[in-house]
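This section describes the prediction task in plain terms. A model, or a person checking by hand, is given the sequence of a single protein chain and must write out its three-dimensional structure as a string of tokens. No templates, partner chains or ligands are provided. The sample shown here is typical of the held-out split.
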Amino acid sequence: MKRIIGLPHGLAIIAISVIVLAGSIAPAEDNDAQVLKEAQGLFEPLPKDLATSKSPVTPERVDLGRKLFFDPRISDDGTVSCARCHQPALYGTDGLAKSLGVHSKLNPRNSPSVLNAALQFKAHWRGDRANVEDQAQQALIGPPSFGNADYAAAMARVKAIPGYPEMFKSAFPGETDLVTADSWGKAIGAYERTLVTPSRFDEYLGGKSDALTVAERLGLRTFIDMGCADCHNGVGLGGEKFRKFGVVEDYWQATGTKEIDKGRTDVTRDPADIYVFKVPSLCNVAMTPPYFHDGSVGTLPDAVRVMARVQLGKTLSDQDTAGIVTFLKSLTGKLPEDFASAPVLPAAGFGLPSRALRNGTTPPAPKPAAANLIYPIIPAAGGVVPLPAAAEQKGQTAASSARPAA
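The expected answer:
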């Protein structure tokens, strides 16, 4: 090793080490800057709210919509609210492969998260709802949703609850016909347009490079290089386009599902739309298993492998899979406070209109209670989780010992 002129041997070695270290740090910093630049070209931070000129967000509409969102008494059996399939504790999902609606009817597809849903260009997996307002309105008469015979029956249930007519009047001033299915959809839509969950990734896109850890930035690099961002891009990393599920291989071969869903072709009647679904948003994806339109895959690493296989024709290594999953976990945001806690609803029993309403008058609105019901966040896991073998054996032994002798 050559000595640096004018320095003793020991100091010379230290100086060389510093030079080498500085040389290694510079390329790493350049790479981080390049990843950030690419990310800013592919993705956009979440906005403060999702209001539009046609779908404004006003305090009165949001307050009404929040109460309606959590109220089960508008369904045919008094058990189904929007929150039944979109639970705060499960980040706006229900953890089921396919949701159970009114009279325990099974829905045909998995319930996606309601968080940030108003960002998406269409609602539902097949895009058969125009937006969150349309989805909320049509859910009133959906056979596996609220199950009302018609909109009139649904609105009669709303009018039967003291307090709601006055809230509709405040939320929709100047309208002659206040309590309608259209205003129901607009109120719930206004509330859902406030359910935005910015994450550390949004801070990163804003220029704060250290908002993501080194491992998360490496995972982002892999996510981009593997081609995931070709579909999962823009605001919300998805929700902006339709794509065939199973580009290079039939999706059910990888997911193991037994029920093959033809997708959007059942809506459009266009053969070109077979197996086409909306590209889902990846916001909070680590908190919303099970995955895909049929809830057929229970864990995020498995979902990542399936997507690489059937969409990109790639078999991911364990390292690449873990890296992408690490990045995806950085997309988890904080629950909005008015979603994490449920409102106290106007007092009324299901299916029991007041005497005043039967006489054709509107009862006065009761003063709402100040308390909220607080939902804890439940650890993410989708579907039915099988017991470990030891626990199952222990349960069988206990059951046998408790069984009466013949």
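For orientation: Residues 301 and 321 are 6 Å apart (CA to CA).
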